[in-house]
Amino acid sequence: YGNYTQIFAATVEVSGTDMAASQLGLADEMDYQKQERLRELIRDLENTVFNGGQPASNPEGSGTVRRSMKGIIQHLSTNVLHDNDTGHPSDDNLDEACVNFMLRKIWENSNGNVDLIVVNGFQKRKINSFISSSRSYGASDTTYTEMISVYESDFGICRIITSRWMPQDAVLFLDSSRINVLPLAGRSFHFKPLASSGDYECGELIGEYTLELRNEAAHGLIRDLTTS
Asked: I want to staple 208 with a disulfide (CB 3.0 to 4.6 A). Which of 80, 171, 184, 220 is the partner?
């Protein structure tokens, strides 16, 4: 599927006083601010990979519309379950039958090999509850665990990972071999010094990235799950 690149940028500005001052535990204020802005940009990139959307007109950008990349959720259409669809839980609570229904649906519609299930914290607890009725521990055990980090089914072995940027009512099923987050050549995150017009040093952290998603039918999405 085609996509556009999106620019992620954040400015850094440090006063001459902060540059000259000796601060406990901080060797260089400018380097520290660069690291903080980089963390913010990586967070924004992760959010956009999942939730990024493109305008219906001028997705390539214009004088009034910035160029943006389409995220995973907006890409998917073949294997998507909504409320009242066949296979969707009748009470909207995520259950094991629904997970297996989606894995089978993807397997039937493509040659994909789902190996990642991505959820937010609420749906992760729902997945953990799959084993609530069968969990046990011995008299000598000192740790009580109720967590599922890998789900093995007839249609593949999936790691379960959490992302705070996933919509609370959604579960993503991904074939990681068919997804890449790539920078434009020479445009990975880097620092660009800018001219200063006063008693400060300034610059910009900038990167230009896009999502490459191959074989849309090799992935899946469940929506409209309960969130409380």
From this structure: 184
Whether residue 26 contacts residue 32, with contact meaning beta carbons closer than 8 Å, is answered with yes
Kindly calculate the radius of gyration of the chain based on its CA atoms and give it in whole angstroms: 22
Identify residue 129 by its one-letter amino acid code: S
Residue the block writes with tokens 């535990």: 25
Q: Is the pLDDT of residue 114 over 90?
A: yes
Q: Are 156 and 115 in contact (CB under 8 A)?
A: yes
Residues of the chain with pLDDT > 70, as a percent, come to 96
Question: What is the rounded average pLDDT for all residues in the chain?
Answer: 91
What is the tens place of the pLDDT at every residue in 20-45? 888 777 788 889 999 999 999 999 99
Helices (H) and strands (E) in the chain, counts: 5, 10
* Pairwise CA distance, residues 220 & 104, whole Å: 10
Residues 120, 126, 131, CA angle at the centre, nearest 5°? 135
Query: What pLDDT is attached to residue 81?
Result: 95
Check if the beta carbon of residue 79 is closer than 8 Å to that of residue 222.
Answer: no
Distance CA 77, CA 74 (A): 8
**Cβ-proximal residues to 183 (8 Å cutoff; 6+ apart), any chain:** 189, 207, 208, 209
Q: How far is 39 from 178, CA to CA, in rounded Å?
A: 26
- Domain boundaries, given as residue ranges, for the chain: 6-134+141-222
pTM attached to this predicted model: 0.86
